[in-house]
Amino acid sequence: MNLQNSLLKKTTAGLFTAATVLTMAAASTTAFATEINESDNTFYNKGGDMNITLKKTLDFSEGVTLPKGEDNQDLWFAFQIEAKSSTVFENKDDMPKLGTDTVTDSAGTEFNNVVKIGGFATDADNDGKNDKNTAEGIITLESADIIDDSQFKRAGEYVYTVKELGTSNFLENKLKAGDDAADWFKDSMTYDDTELELHILVKNKEDGTGCYVSSAYFTKRNSNTNDNTGSEDSAVGGDNRSSDIDALCDHVQKIDKVQPIFSNTYVKEAGKNPNANNSKSSLGITKTVAGDYADKEKSFDFTIKVQALTNENVLKQVIKEASAADNPWSSITVEGDKITQLTAYVQDIKNYDKVPGVEDTDVTPVTLTLKNGYYTADFKLKDGQYLTFVSLPAGFKYDVTESNTKGFTPSATLFENVDLRNDDSLISTQNPIQQRLATIEAGNGFSTASSPVSLAPDEDGNKIKTISHKNGTVSTAGLVLIGEHDNSFDVKNTYSDPTTTGLIVKNLPFIVMIALGVLAFLGLTKKRRAND
User: Fold this and answer.
1) 9: Cβ–Cβ under 8 A, 6 or more apart, which residues?
2) Range name among 228-242, 389-403, 410-424 with the lowest pLDDT average
3) Is the pTM of this model over 0.90?
4) What is the CATH T-level fold of the domain 270-495, as seen in this structure?
C-alpha cells in the first residue's frame, strides 16, 4: 500500500511538473507573440490584425504661420509604397497593394495608391487657436493603418519600398522684390528622401483556416547612410541599425514610443508677410533725433547680437540653401556647414525701397561675427538712418542696446513680429517706415487711422512695447523674435534743451528794456533826493 502511494505521489508530481513546463512554454510563446522586440526592431502580431502606421514630422521656425495648400486646404504629405519582391509571387504586380489614397499635388499631377497624412496647419486641431506644439515649430501626425491583413492569403515574405512623395499641395510663393504687390517673400518646403523597405512576414494559422500577418520590420538602403559595405540592403538591426528607424513601424501596444523618421522642413522669410505694412527688410532698427537744439548729425552707438535658429532641421536647411551659388539669404554667409557671419547695412530711411549695396551704394555694411554663441557687432546711427537686415529666415532672435546718450533722453518702440495691416488708402509711393514712425509720434496707437494708412496689430500673439531708458541706456532687454511679420526697434533720442539759457537769449531785448527802465527810475529818484 505504501509502495502504491509512493508511486502515485511520484506520478502525480511528474505530471504536475510536466504540466508546469508545458504551461510555462505556452506562456513564453504567447508572450513572445505579443511583445515588440526592440533588439531587432521587429513588430510581432498578438493574434489580431497587425497595425503599422507611418508618421510625419514637419519642422518650421517659431512664430511662422504654415501656408495653406492648393484650394486653401491644409497641407498634406503622401508616401508611395510599391511592391518589390515576394517569396510567393514571381510577378511583383500580383502582390497585395498597399496605399488606398489618391492625391493631386499643386502642379495638378495625380498620384494613386498612396498613403496620405493631412491636416498640417498652424491650428492643427481646428479649435480656432494656434496649437501649443506649433509655437515650438514642430507638428507630428500619423497615418491610418497602411496594411489590410485580409489581402495576405498566402504564407511567405512580402517586401515593399517605402518613400515619401517628393511633392504635395504646398504652393511656393512666387512673388519677388519689384513685383507690383506687397506680399513678396521667399519660402520653401523640403521633403525627406529616405527610402526604406518594409518586410511583411505571413504565416499559416495553426488551425489550418488560413494565414495571418505575423511580423513586420523595415530595412534601410546603405545608399542613404555612410555604410559602404557594398551590400544592397542592411537589416535595421545589429550594428547597422538606425536608432530611430523603428519610427516607421507602429504596433498598437507601442504607439506612445514611436519616433517619427520622415521629416520635412518649411522655411519662410522674416518680415515680409502678405499685406503687411513692412519696410521690405527682415529687421529694421531706426533712429530719430528730436529737439530744437539737437545735433542731427551726431552718431549714436549701438550693439547688436543675433541668435541663430534653434530648430536644428530648419537651420540645416537654411545653411544648405545659403551654400548654393544663388544664395537666397543675402544676410547670411556660410562656410562648410556653419553660418560664419551675418551682414546688415546702415541706410537712410528715405531709401528703404532700394537694395543696399546694389541699388543704393551710399550705405555702410555692418558685419556680425560669431562670439560666445551670438553673432555680434557694434554700429552707429544718426537721425533718419536705420540698420536693415535685407533677408533673414524667420526664427532668428536679436538683442540690441543703445549707449552714450549723454544730453539726450532715449526711448524706443518695439514691434515684435507684429502684423501691421494697411487699408486700400495706402499710397504705394509713401514710406512705410515713416508712416509707422509718424503714428508712434502722434501717440494714437495702432488701432485707429493715422493718415493715410490704418495700422492695427494682429489679434493673436503680436507685441508692441514702449520702452523707457534706464540710466541713459535703452535696449530690447533680452532676445526678441524676428518673425514673419514686422520686426522693428524704433529708437528716439530727445535732446534736453538748455531752457535756462534759451529763456535768457529769447527774452534778452525785454530784459534789457526792463533793466534800463529800472536804472532810469533809480537815477530819477536819486536826483530828486539831491534836489531836496
Assistant:
1) none
2) 228-242
3) no
4) Immunoglobulin-like (2.60.40)
